[in-house]
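Slide 14.
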Amino acid sequence: MKKERFGTVDGKEVFLYTLENANGMKVVLSDFGALIIRIFAPDKDGRLEDVALGYDSLEKYRENGCFLGAVVGPNANRIGGAQFVLDGKTYHLDVNDGVNNLHSHMDLGVHKRIWAAREQDGGILFSLEMKDGELGFSGNRVFHVFYEVTQDNGLRITYDADSDKNTIINMTNHCYFNLDGQGADTIENHTLQILADSYTPADEGSIPNGDIVPVAGTPMDFTEPHKVGERIGEDFAQLKMAGGYDHNWVCRKYDGTVRKIAVLQNESGSRTMEVYTDLPGVQFYAGNFLVEEEGKDGKSYRPRCGLALETQFYPDTPNKPQFPSSVFGPDRHYHTVTEYKFI
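Slide 15: predicted structure.
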């Protein structure tokens, strides 16, 4: 594993760590935010390209309003009204997305903290502690994120967390992918398949109404492969409210075991990414509101130049008892696995 200095935050040194397999696939990570900085992924002929959007400088990651490459937590996605009730107590969170909470906290979430890092079993383990009440969530908590590059060209991410009180934990990685290479043209010509027969419709604030609705007969149906841009502009209320795809799909066969939930392919068919997880949902975000800015290597970013497939418990789960529970604590250890595999 290669380690190199990336900069400093408040006088503390920040480093980059590079993992590589025997095929030459490389992933560059940082202990700032447990970020994914680069993914050099092979195509079908073994040619490598960096397929993850990001920045060259630590200073840009300290801003990072679109969460490029970020581990998000303690709770990813939205919580309606920026509050929830757990064990009879109301918890109040940062109001940062209209009247709601998005990704726990824009400035103090786990994506903007320096994690402890150590090499383990050929990968790298990032660890972070949070105190009871910090960011509005209960429990003294310890979070771990373990990255490894598999010999069959997968980036496997394993999340673990413990808390001494019942609390909400729902972590994800917000990497934006473009399989033609970061800084390439729109992902609207990428083909996507999501192995989900239902999704959770949401209101104007992207808060689910609690229903689980079939995708059949709607532009939300990716049970067979479709180009991302094929139906994104249709006169469909859910798409119009969100400016395109930014919804949670209810993945098939949720039983706590890892299974394939999505397949993404670039227009030429030269590079394919499969997504595996043990989680119940995936937020497909088509990058509708990515900022026009300079990314890595002087490349220009713009809306829909990358997409995210964020494995997760459903949005607003703490306020929706009918959704799979994201309550963890002394009697329930948090452990999930997600893998992005390139074939």
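Speaker note: Residues 12 and 114 are 8 Å apart (CA to CA).
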